[in-house]
Amino acid sequence: MTDPHPHYWLYLEAGEKKSPFAWKFILREAAGAKRYEISDIEEVEEYRSGDRLELLTLIRALEYLDQPSKVTLTRCSAAIRQGIQYGLAEWRSNNWEWEFFGQMAPVKNHDLWRRLDHLLDFHRIDFGLRRFDLSERAESVPQPHRNLSPTIKAIREAFSGWKQRTERRVFHNLMERFSTLIEEFRRRLTVPRAA
């Protein structure tokens, strides 16, 4: 029996180092017929947090879909993944609070988690690892890197030589210090005898 709902792959980007307020999502049909890419910038300080911005990006992606769908998240943080898989049901039953060191505390970003919980009444989310080309142009397909093994071999040889020289120098310095200590110890043991 086939699933009547369309299946999408979802890729999220939120709060990258170059632009901490920027977010982007790419929705692609699993069949590959349709592709949607939406991006924007949230210039509100409260969205500077990576988890909050990523959660908002996920919500915007699900709100973009016009019918109930199956969505496979291909890239998201562990906090979002664990919140969806393990936290939502417990938080909902505890009135959006969780036990923190024996006391009930509000769930961080509970306003967004509530929105996501409502969207999950319509959409089904699962998690998967899938690499797909984010652009439709053929020239943007990642090219294989040049053979780096000669470079890596040269770096290993240089490091090995440096390591051996350093070990020899350290060993030599230790032996010199040890022999100095032995000589000092011998001098202290040989006490002149009184006549």
Mean of residue pLDDT?
Answer: 76
List the total number of helices: 4
Tell me the radius of gyration: 30 Å
Biggest β-sheet strands, sense, barrel: 5 strands, mixed
Share of helical residues: 40-55%
Shape: elongated
- Which consecutive residue ranges, at least 5 long each, have pLDDT under 50? 134-148
Q: Give the number of DSSP strands.
A: 7
Features:
195 residues; alpha/beta; five-stranded mixed β-sheet; two-stranded antiparallel sheet; 4 helices; 7 strands; 42% helix; 21% strand
Describe this entry's structure for a reader:
The longest helix is centred in the C-terminal third of the chain and has 41 residues, at 149-189. The protein is elongated, with a radius of gyration of 30 Å. The protein starts with 6 loop residues before the first strand and ends in a 6-residue tail after the last helix. By secondary structure, it is α/β, with parallel strands linked by helices. A hairpin with a 5-residue loop joins strand 2 (22-29) and strand 3 (35-41). It contains four helices and seven strands; from the N terminus they run βββαβαββαβα.
Quick description:
The chain is built from four helices and seven strands.
Sequence-ordered SSE layout with sheet pairings:
Layout: E1 7-14, E2 22-29, E3 35-41, H1 50-64, E4 70-75, H2 78-93, E5 97-100, E6 103-106, H3 110-119, E7 124-127, H4 149-189
